[in-house]
Design a protein that fits this description.
A seven-stranded mixed sheet has the order 1-2-3-4-5-7-6, sandwiched between helices. The protein has a domain of 105 residues: Gcn5-related N-acetyltransferase (GNAT) (Aminopeptidase). It is an alpha+beta fold. Helices cover 26% and strands 33% of the residues. It is built from four helices and seven strands.
Length: 175
C-alpha cells in the first residue's frame, strides 16, 4: 500500500489515446502550467499523442487518469515535455513509475540522454529527477513566461556518438 492508502496494483500504465487529450491538457494547465498561461491545450496534446516520435503514457486508477507523461525522441536525445500526477496520488510512486517507463523506452530507442526543464520552486520534481539519475545542467532565468527560472536537468544514458576526425596520412619528416 502507498502512503495514501491506495494499492499500487490498481494503478495501470498505458498509452494515451486521442480521447485523453482534453483531460491531459486540463491536468497540464492545473498541475504544471498554473500561473503561467496555458500552452498545452487539447490540440497541442492531441498532436503530441499522435506524433510518431513521441510517447504519451497515462497512469490510471479505475480507468481514471491520475498521472501522465509525454516525451519526444530525437536522433540521440529525448525530451521529457510534461509529467504530472494529481495531488491525491502524489507520493505513491506514480511519477517514479512513469519516469522509469520513459527511461526504459529511451534506452530501448538508443537515446544518449533525456532532458527536462522544471520550475526552480518545484522541489518535489527536482527530487524526483535527482532520484531518477538526472543531474542539473543549467538554470535559465525568465524561462517561464519571462518571469520564472527553469532548472534544466539531464540523464546520460550512454556516451553520445562521437564523429571521428578525418583520417590523413601522417606527415613525413623531410631532412
Amino acid at each position: 500500500m502507498a502512503e495514501s492508502g491506495m494499492d499500487d496494483a490498481n494503478i495501470v500504465l498505458g498509452f494515451a489515446g486521442q480521447r485523453d487529450a482534453q483531460t491531459l491538457a486540463l491536468m497540464s494547465r492545473d498541475l504544471i502550467e498554473a500561473g503561467l498561461g496555458w500552452a498545452y491545450r487539447k490540440d497541442r496534446i492531441a498532436r503530441l499523442i499522435g506524433h510518431p516520435e513521441a510517447a504519451a503514457i497515462v497512469a490510471r486508477e479505475g480507468g481514471r487518469p491520475i498521472g501522465f507523461a509525454i516525451m519526444t525522441f530525437g536522433d540521440e536525445r529525448a525530451h521529457l515535455v510534461l509529467l504530472a500526477v494529481r495531488p491525491s496520488h502524489r507520493r505513491c510512486g506514480v511519477a517514479r513509475r512513469l519516469l522509469a517507463w520513459l527511461v526504459e523506452s529511451a534506452l530501448t530507442a538508443g537515446m544518449a540522454s533525456i532532458h527536462v526543464e522544471l520550475r526552480v520552486e518545484n522541489v518535489s520534481a527536482h527530487a524526483l529527477y535527482r532520484a531518477g539519475g538526472f543531474t542539473e545542467t543549467l538554470r535559465v532565468p525568465g524561462y517561464y513566461a519571462g518571469r520564472e527560472t527553469a532548472i534544466r536537468m539531464m540523464r546520460l544514458l550512454r556516451a553520445p556518438d562521437v564523429v571521428a576526425p578525418s583520417w590523413r596520412w601522417p606527415t613525413l619528416d623531410r631532412h
